[in-house]
Design a protein that fits this description.
Elements lengths: L1 H21 L1 E8 L10 E4 L5 E3 L5 E6 L4 E5 L6 E4 L8 E2 L11 E3 L4 E3 L7 E4 L21 E5 L8 E5 L12 E4 L2 E3 L4 H4 E3 L5 E4 L11 E3 L6 E3 L11 E7 L1 H8 L7 E6 L8 E11 L10 H11 L13 H5 L3 E14 L2 E13 L6 E14 L4 E14 L4 H10 L30 H7 L1 E20 L2 E20 L13 E16 L1
Parallel strand pairs: 1-7, 13-20
Antiparallel strand pairs: 1-4, 2-3, 2-5, 5-6, 8-9, 10-19, 11-12, 13-14, 15-18, 16-17, 19-20, 21-22, 22-23, 23-24, 24-25, 25-26, 26-27, 27-28
Length: 520
């Protein structure tokens, strides 16, 4: 009995060894008819569950036996079958099918069209991978003809100037209409996004009794500073699938007067039933101002003003480079993660991201959290239900960055940052002349707090019915809920500093809620 068991064990070991010996590594490259690599093509051992995918260069590696057949497949391409035999390298060329030939499809407001059938003025923007851009409108810089994008300032979260076909109005709004997954974004103009950073007002006196030309007298210590926010800063550029720009009559024919300055259609990413895909990304960026102006040092400043203003006092107390004091090398971090795929007749796309951006101005930064969920499901060949939902929150603590930079430009370099006690040095004394408004740029950066918190929810649900192959009826409901909270707090200043707001606070809250219904 023991002898039989031993022989049986030896036989099983030999069988496993022979089976392992028959399997060998097969590798190769999958390309299309033009020689370009086919990424994520499926390579399957026929009759088994053993499979793999090609990489970005079309390369694959798989274990197979000589008797096996490999099946190569990818959407819109004809399947190819190759017998392994004794080959270790199998290169395959996949040919496009005539029925599912890939076409250039363009989103045109209420539907899609093939590029070859499109006669209107529409530009499609090809998105750059791993561009590391912070806002959506930065993707359009130099990306399409007739579209001009310039930075309005170097401040984090600051508005950018975007013109399509130039300026269309002298006094009106020249911003294009942004439409995200069918939901128009309103309130992108300057007035709706300007935040004052002057602080509150200080009541000086109130007069009652006999009225002579008014009932009260108020002083307002106002520096007349403001910051224009970028309404697109809350959106995550990594979620965008495509951007179409409608110009001229093509924009107004669909959106009327709202599209007079052009329309930017933004379509976000969707899932695919072909495969499940997980992407995780991390971006590190470094920012530092270049070409800073060459300013006078403390000795040069004291000498020039002492000679220019006779009988005046401009001593050299210090040699301060104020620009160097208020700037830094900013380090920003961005983490993104997404998963997309499909189950049965449904597809989904889920993403989240967190950005922590530093300004090159000290103690100024901005962080953003964004989450998105897109899904669609087919009840049958005629009915489709879909949902697009995004949640975005932006905290911008860099509203005063431009004011701090400009204050450092004109601050007297013969004055120190700190006094002998280690406290901030205020005022312009012992200089004979100066400006209290630029009391201390470093102190401005640390004791004042000018910030804005923006929360935005964009949602769109649709139901589509296709009674015929060439006819579709679609009804959709979208909403844009936007909440903005700005807070300006001026720190405590010494009593000798006059004409500058201190010990003041101002808070402003704006809520916008819009519902859009489209039937087409």
């Amino acid at each position: 009995m023991l002898h039989r068991i031993t022989l049986l064990a030896i036989g099983l070991m030999l069988s496993v060894t022979m089976s392992s010996a028959q399997t060998h590594k097969v590798e190769g490259r999958v390309t299309d008819s033009e020689g370009s690599p086919v990424e994520l093509a499926t390579v399957l051992v026929k009759g088994t569950t053993i499979s793999t995918y090609t990489d970005k260069d079309g390369l694959y590696t798989i274990m197979a036996a000589p008797k096996d057949h490999l099946i190569f497949s990818f959407i819109s391409y004809e399947k190819a079958t190759e017998k392994v035999g004794d080959r270790t390298v199998i290169n395959v060329v996949l040919r496009e099918t005539g029925e599912f030939m890939m076409r250039d499809i363009v989103v045109t407001g209420y539907g899609t069209q093939e590029r070859r059938d499109l006669t209107g003025s529409v530009s499609s923007v090809k998105l750059k991978e791993d561009a590391g851009l912070k806002t959506v409108d930065q993707l359009l810089q130099g990306a399409a003809p007739g579209v001009y994008m310039t930075n309005s300032s170097g401040a984090l979260g600051g508005a950018n100037v975007l013109n399509i076909r130039g300026v269309s109005s002298i006094m009106g709004d020249n911003n294009p209409l942004y439409v995200i997954d069918g939901v128009p974004m309103y309130g992108t103009d300057r007035d709706a996004n300007s935040v004052g950073t002057t602080g509150g007002s200080v009541a000086a006196a109130s007069m009652g009794g006999t009225h002579t030309g008014g009932g009260s007298l108020n002083f307002n210590y106002d520096l007349k500073n403001s910051f224009e926010k970028n309404p697109l800063a809350t959106l995550n550029p990594e979620d965008i699938e495509s951007i179409e720009i409608l110009k001229d009559a093509f924009a107004t024919a669909i959106y009327g007067s709202r599209g007079a300055a052009g329309v930017v259609l933004i379509t976000t990413k969707k899932g695919s039933r072909e495969r499940t895909q997980i992407n995780v990304g991390y971006t590190l960026s470094v920012d530092r101002p270049m070409g800073k102006p060459d300013l006078l040092n403390g000795e040069e400043y004291a000498m020039i003003y002492s000679h220019y203003l006779r009988n005046s006092n401009f001593p050299r107390l210090a040699d301060t480079d104020w620009l160097d004091a208020v700037t830094r090398t900013a380090v920003s971090n961005s983490v993104t993660a997404s998963i997309s795929g499909g189950m049965g007749k449904s597809t989904y796309f889920l993403s989240t991201s967190y950005d922590l951006n530093q300004s090159y101005i000290i103690n100024n930064d901005m962080d953003r959290f964004a989450a998105r969920f897109n899904m669609s499901t087919e009840f049958d060949k005629r009915w489709t239900l879909g949902l697009n939902l995004s949640l975005n929150k932006l905290n911008n603590n860099a509203l005063a960055a431009s004011g701090i930079y400009s204050a450092a430009l004109i601050k007297a370099p013969n004055l120190p940052i700190y006094n002998e006690s280690g406290d901030y040095y205020y005022g312009y004394a012992p200089n004979t002349k100066g400006s209290n408004e630029n009391y201390n740029p470093v102190a401005q950066a640390y004791i004042n707090n000018e910030s804005a918190e923006d929360t935005r929810v964009l949602a769109n649900a649709y139901l589509e019915y296709k009674p015929l192959s060439w006819l579709s009826i679609r009804s959709e409901v979208g909403t844009d809920m936007y909440n903005s909270f700005s807070s300006v707090r001026k720190g405590e200043l010494p009593e000798n500093i006059t004409g500058v707001p201190g010990n003041q606070a101002q808070e402003t809250t704006n809520n916008r809620y819009k519902v859009v219904i489209n039937n087409h």
